Amino acid sequence: MIDDGRLDSAREFVTRFLREEIDETTNPELFGEDVLMFAVIKIDARAPSWILQQLTDRRWPLSRRAELLCPMMTNYAEGYAILRDEAPNLVRHMPDPGR
Length: 99
What we know:
Radius of gyration: 13 Å
Low-confidence stretches: none
Number of strands: 0
Oligomer: single chain
Shape: globular
Largest sheet: none
Order of helices and strands: HHHHHHH
Mean pLDDT: 92
Strand content: under 5%
Number of helices: 7
Distance between the termini: 39 Å
């Protein structure tokens, strides 16, 4: 199925972002086109357990994991709770899903 290939591509892009292989400096065109945002939105809708697992995975830098939170629409509250439990000061400026 074509969409499964797109989901796999989105996961690969997010993984490369988390590994710090790509960023706004090295790949400005990808960030200018909001590729990360759309990848996270797709994964959040189609494979929420995968994206939530990445938020809990301490192999990835906390700042990178936090960048995945804002585009999450379906599971924002769960993602917020994961990051809040690990680093309350990190999410204090983000919208609280309980308000």
